[in-house]
Write a structure and sequence with these properties.
By secondary structure, the protein is an alpha/beta fold. The chain has one domain (8-345): 3-Layer(aba) Sandwich (Arginase, Chain A), CATH 3.40.800.20. Helix content is 40%, strand content 13%. It has eleven helices and ten strands. It starts with 7 loop residues before the first strand and ends in a 6-residue tail after the last helix. The protein binds zinc ion. Zinc ion binds at residues 167-169, 252, 254, 295-296.
Length: 351
């Protein structure tokens, strides 16, 4: 690659801080302070990122994924304290923040598609999105930002959009949005059994979308080596066969060992490897166009260090996970997890 630095777009907006529960909630605005620290540290070492002005997603754009009835339900809650379920609060500014977060995801796609080769970007959005189903928000999520980004890319003429979801929870909302649609390949790695309970390897899609929904459920305790093996053996081979023309990531950082909600053992290096892997896929198939959207991650230090490593990997040369992974031997249980996922994939992909 030329030494010239690639543009990296940044989506952020003060309204994302205004989504705040009345009492303590792990999905809190302080998370943004952590990710902004990471961005500052990264920018200090490399030079600036290109800030994008997020806009509000319109009803029509939101209804590419969500039902009009759900959009109306959110509008009725605008300005009030309420909740969609026990986990998912709404504060007076939450609906406005969700519209801006979704619009930020769309602005990121617009910027990537309009940019030179190798442009990447990160959207530091709140509230997160990947649990939001077409007809209801759940799991801290109101609007499904990454699904809306993918739908927008399809609307703009992309033919094959890949979404890798490395948040520790299964991206059930994103799965639901594209379960019958081969134009979006969805790959989720997640702790199982765990919230929200979906994401079995046998959930491979339906109808024309059969084979284009990939779940890699992993037992609690998975380390950098487990995720690196999952990427090497399953995720990257499937992505290379699919050859996406846009690469998106649901970038949650709650599989970090320090995370208080989950039980995985990833370090920042683990995220660096995964980010480098998707960067390589984007390079090989999608003119380098890669967009990352923030999902979960509830330990502030884990969030900051992991996002910084991710940004460095996205900006740097692509390295296959196998080139950097210390291939610590996997336990029988961990090997079994990967083998079960591979068995579900083999009718559709060479893995
Ligand atoms: Zn999560």
């Amino acid at each position: 690659m030329a030494a010239k630095e690639r543009p990296i777009f940044l989506v952020d907006d003060p309204i994302f801080d205004e989504h705040r529960a009345r009492g303590y909630h792990p999905e809190r605005p302080e998370r943004l302070l952590a990710v902004r620290h990471a961005v500052s540290a990264f920018a200090g070492s490399r030079g600036g990122l290109t800030s994008l002005a997020p806009r509000d997603a319109s009803d029509d754009e939101i209804e590419r994924v969500h039902t009009p009835r759900y959009v109306e339900q959110l509008e009725q809650a605008d300005g009030l304290f309420s909740a969609l379920d026990d986990d998912t609060y709404l504060a007076p500014r939450s609906v406005a923040a969700a519209r801006r977060a979704a619009g930020g995801a769309l602005a990121l796609v617009d910027a990537l598609l309009g940019a030179e080769d190798g442009a990447t970007g990160v959207a530091l959005v709140r509230p997160p999105g990947h649990h939001a189903r077409p007809d209801r928000g759940m799991g801290f999520c109101l609007l499904n930002n990454v699904a809306l980004a993918a739908a927008h890319a399809l609307e703009r003429g992309k033919k094959r959009v890949a979404i890798v979801d490395w948040d520790v929870h299964h991206g059930n909302g994103t799965q639901d949005a594209f379960y019958r649609d081969p134009r979006v390949l969805f790959i989720s790695l997640h702790q199982a059994p765990f919230y929200p309970g979906s994401g079995n390897a046998a959930e491979v899609g339906d109808g024309e979308g059969t084979g284009f929904n990939v779940n890699v459920p992993l037992s609690a305790g998975a380390s950098d080596a487990v995720y690196a093996a999952a990427f090497d053996r399953l995720v990257l081979p499937v992505l290379d066969q699919y050859a996406p023309d846009l690469m998106l990531v649901s970038a949650g950082f709650d599989a970090h060992a320090r995370d208080p909600l989950a039980g995985m053992m990833l370090s920042a290096e683990g995220f660096r490897r995964m980010a480098s892997g998707v960067r390589g896929v984007a390079e090989r198939h999608a003119q380098g166009h890669l967009g990352l959207l923030l999902e979960g991650g509830y330990d502030l230090e884990g969030l900051e260090t992991s996002l910084l490593a991710t940004l460095e990997a996205v900006a740097g040369p692509a390295v296959a996970p196998s080139q950097v992974a210390d291939q610590a031997p996997l336990s029988m249980r961990q090997t079994g997890d990967l083998e079960r996922a591979a068995t579900a994939l083999r009718p559709f992909w060479k893995v």
